[in-house]
């Protein structure tokens, strides 16, 4: 597990800027990801949310240039050689994407995909890797985890596949989890289960989690702090309760007013966060 900075942040993003061709897509984005907390990154489509996560992992398009710093354990990930950054991905920083079906090969069993992943990164034997995979599926509350290893991705629902994708992401005990719109493709009741899972894993494993979503209703359920992006720039940031009940920026107010009525009620607590 990575160590924290003196201010409690496990990962620090400072003045992250990205240009693709002649277009500025991110401009001086800064935020902290503390241990055991869910940091929300909100904004409409095209605001730069996903680009922020991709930049943090060094997964930008070839034509892109990134400046600033993404600091983990005193290292600026933006400055690491490609091979060294590849070792950070999956081991120290992992990512869950929007479409869980795209995360798995449909013709390979879930067991083979999970065990290959942990054997590659952790050097486990085949037997130990299978035991680890079973434990992971149990940890993400997938029914019949041992039996699930022999099944193929098309046998699972979208919500079950997202749980398996989360299991794969935490397989190598990363310190940081980036979740990019992890509930968008799921129906409302399934969304709630995935959000509860992300919250509990952050609490139990001490993960520094970045939850990316355009839906502030989703954010209100699990985030500790919220950062709001507009056109690649941070317009507001602070504790969840403050941002969602006393927004300071007109854009944040617009996002909140666009939500279905009462979608925030009952999820914001008493403001003690």
Task: Describe this entry's structure for a reader.
The protein contains 10 helices and 10 strands. It has 273 residues and is an alpha/beta fold. The chain has a domain at 101-173. The chain has a 6-stranded mixed beta sheet with strand order 6-7-8-3-9-10, with helices on both faces. Strands 2-1-4-5 form a 4-stranded antiparallel beta sheet, covered by helices on one side. β9 (225-230) and β10 form a beta hairpin. Residues 1-6 have low confidence and may be disordered.
Fraction of residues in H or I helices: 25-40%
3D shape: globular
DSSP, total strands: 10
Number of helices: 10
Strand portion, in percent? 15-25%
Order of strands across the main sheet: 6-7-8-3-9-10
Major sheet attributes: 6 strands, mixed
Radius of gyration: 18 Å
Listing every helix as H and every strand as E from the N terminus to the C terminus, the arrangement reads EEEHEEHEHHHHEHEHEEHH
Mean pLDDT: 89
What ranges have pLDDT less than 50 throughout 5 or more consecutive residues? 1-6
What would you call the structural class?
alpha/beta
Terminal residue distance: 25 Å
